[in-house]
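Ticket #4471: structure export looks truncated?
Reporter: QA, pipeline team
Priority: medium

Steps to reproduce: submit the single chain below to the structure queue and open the exported record.
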Amino acid sequence: MKQLGLDSFTDKRIWIIGASSGIGEACAKALLSKGANIALSSRRVERLNQVAATGKINQTLVIPLDVTDDRQFQDAYKIILDTWGGIDLLLFVSGVYIPLRADHFDINIARQTIDANLLGPMRAVALVTPEMVKAKSGHIAIVGSVAGYSGLPKALAYGPSKAAIINFCENLYYDLLPTGISVHMISPGFVATEATAKNDFEMPALISAEEAAQEILTGIQDGEFDIHFPKRFSRFLKFLRILPYPIYFWIVRRFVKI
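Actual output as written to the record:
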């Protein structure tokens, strides 16, 4: 059994969480241009209003949301259900990235990262899945990272949060495929965003947020589970994780000079 893609985004009801900047903003603008109806969520309402202004009248819902707040999630989804009756696609893009290494490990940063990057998507999925199961259709797309493939420098909290997302999406796929719900696990490499602007090292195969959005939307339309990009970088990291650890660590130390 193969999961379904989306033949068109026109008139589809899409909830983008993390729509105020970066990949989420780029996805929102691309989808608005394709005629989708978008619920835009993030903490920064002024930025959401700017994104909404690029669409047509009544094409968007602006719903401020902190992904670590259960009550805000419930209230946000109620607005969507009351307005649209459901959604066709949940696109969870929101995430926290704070560079962290073992010699300056901060448990508060780790807690914040896990709450936003792992429990945030879990909160969203727990909300939308029951209605999708009833409808026997829908798409759940979660943005993780190639940093979840294996251990990398400066990702002591971020990497584990994204590794858990990979496992979470794999389990969702197993469980939801028979119900008619498609799951899309999205693993970007380096994308030029506010988050990656914090990096003080050269980022190989860096792409724009608009390029990332195109990869994501094409993958969803094609029904892909494993959407990873840019391929020249993500395939290399996939290869690294099958190597014996001594070789893997040697390569990381040799080529990741940070």
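Status: closed, not a bug. The export was complete when the record was re-opened. Leaving a note from the reviewer for reference: The helical segments are 22-33, 45-52, 70-84, 107-135, 158-176, 209-221, 231-240, 245-255.
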